[in-house]
């Protein structure tokens, strides 16, 4: 197994640890960060999320640079990303830091585009991520990390940076989803 695939599997293994850190009330204390309280377990979970998100960039970089792209990586990398982002967003709804309707739209878009990619793959077409999709991913990661940190450091000035980034990522999520379907509708129309 090559390095990019090992990093992808490491990201998958981080997800249950992340979920446990966000779901169980560990007696590690908390910090008063301006207008809110940040449990230490949420801080640790946020760091783990940031590390996991970073491995996504690293494994993609190494796979392309050293021509280590494999079918296993093509399958596992987007799956690991969707599992990580979905878990984080659902947990943010649970702790009331993200509205459920926003999370439903984001996850629905991910499932719809994944379905389109599967149909395209069955037709022998590879759908590369566009610039809007990349912007969507970056804004999602920034929004999620900020919300996991309970809006630190912006909580000191009462600026809802994480929430604003979540809505910006929602806009890019919708635009990039529509873009995928408009550019690739012929795949759905012409599939057998």
TrEMBL record:
Top-level enzyme category: transferase
Catalytic reactions of this protein: a CDP-1,2-diacyl-sn-glycerol + sn-glycerol 3-phosphate = a 1,2-diacyl-sn-glycero-3-phospho-(1'-sn-glycero-3'-phosphate) + CMP + H(+)
Membrane disposition: Multi-pass membrane protein
Principal subcellular localization: membrane
E.C. no: 2.7.8.5
Keyword set includes Lyase: no
The protein's annotated pathway: Phospholipid metabolism; phosphatidylglycerol biosynthesis; phosphatidylglycerol from CDP-diacylglycerol: step 1/2; Lipid metabolism
Bilayer-crossing regions: 12-31, 43-62, 83-107, 156-182
Compartment(s) of residence: Membrane
A GO MF term: CDP-diacylglycerol-glycerol-3-phosphate 3-phosphatidyltransferase activity
Keywords per UniProt: Lipid biosynthesis, Lipid metabolism, Membrane, Phospholipid biosynthesis, Phospholipid metabolism, Transferase, Transmembrane, Transmembrane helix
Domain of life: Bacteria
Family statement: Belongs to the CDP-alcohol phosphatidyltransferase class-I family.
NCBIfam families: pgsA (TIGR00560)
Function: This protein catalyzes the committed step to the synthesis of the acidic phospholipids.
The name this protein goes by in its record: CDP-diacylglycerol--glycerol-3-phosphate 3-phosphatidyltransferase
Annotated source species: Oceanobacillus locisalsi
